[in-house]
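--- STAGE predict ---
source: upstream dedup step, 1 unique chain passed
mode: sequence only
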Amino acid sequence: MQTLRYILTITCPDRVGIVAAVSNLLADHRGNIVESDQFSDTESGRFFMRLVFELEPEIEPALAAHLEPLGQRFGMVWKLYDPRRLARVMILVSKAEHCLNDLLYRHRTGALSMEITAIVSNHRALAHLAEWHAIPFHYLPVAAATKSEQERQILELIESSQTELVVLARYMQILSPELCEALAGRAINIHHSFLPGFKGAKPYHQAHARGVKLIGATAHFVTANLDEGPIVEQEVERVDHAHTPAQLAAVGRDIENIVLARAIHYHLERRVFLNGAKTVVLR
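--- STAGE serialize ---
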């Protein structure tokens, strides 16, 4: 009988017997575990688990039915994923194209297994990239007087397309607290690592003037507290006095590409768990 691979994610209060109970349940349904990662957070008392296992597809409904009482017994929040069903992702951008271009390339080559539902922008500058990749493009300009209406349109697009994850790929607009709440835990942003050190215009010029030796990028979940959401991934690179502001910016763009792609990859593989103000990433 042919088997398929599934992913099971679990988070619950930590206690004795969770791993044994889940493993025994899978064994009872002839599930073969091929990857297992877990983490017990002694500070929050929470337990996090990600399992990849092979199972005959005909047995999936029965397994899901038996997971329900097990989940109630341990107070679990659990999800069972079929990796054949690609996550639906919407990308928000403004004018900077490096992150969008990188994500589209990785998507086209299969490095990021996802279905891009749309590209949404407050400018028309990157419409050509969407057209070349045959992805729907929505131009939604925004001004102070129209911000709430524009965000309503974004949310409608997210809901109508059944988008699971929203990626802010250098989308240079501050989301309202209302939109942040609506997208809690399903919107990832990227920013340079200088924040909150060098805010405002030309951060790489500010860094150059201060003789910065390390630059990098941070991918995090979006919250109402600007650039302070739970961190998913970070990276840094050493620079020196010989780097011009333009060279620093080029290094920064490369790191932003890498960090954002990694964060999305972890999310697509169901490796990221929210844990209060931080994350657990079972790599």
